[in-house]
Design a protein that fits this description.
globular; Receptor-associated Protein; 0% strand; mainly alpha
Length: 117
């Protein structure tokens, strides 16, 4: 079974709590923007680790660890977000792709957080 399949199974597990809300995705975006902005030299995978430590949602932790692991496997940042269309719609993924291309991910995550709130 793939890591994505495992993640989707775990996210569907009712013992893990409710589905991830837009508010939780907005919080994730805020944490990512802060991690990227606070440590300019920080690798994106390290930013995901910071978010894993700082979020209280077990489901968000699972998603963030999945994103980090997939990037470590060599997948692009936009590609990894696009692999979870139930959480990250086309608008979100397009903005991430634009942010990567413009080397402005912190600003992109800030804007996405505001959009989701």
């Amino acid at each position: 079974m793939s890591q994505r399949s495992d993640l989707l199974r775990d996210l569907a597990d009712p013992t893990m709590g409710d589905d991830i809300t837009n508010s939780e995705v907005a919080d994730f975006c805020k944490l990512m923007a802060k991690a990227i902005r606070d440590e300019e030299h920080l690798l994106i995978v390290n930013a995901f680790e910071v978010v894993t430590w700082e979020t209280s949602s077990s489901k968000v932790k699972l998603v963030v660890m999945y994103l980090r692991d997939e990037i470590c496997r060599g997948n692009s940042i936009p590609e990894v977000f696009r692999s979870l269309p139930d959480l990250f719609d086309d608008f979100f993924c397009n903005k991430i792709e634009e942010g990567v291309g413009a080397e402005a991910l912190a600003t992109t995550f800030d804007r996405l957080a505001k959009y989701l709130e």
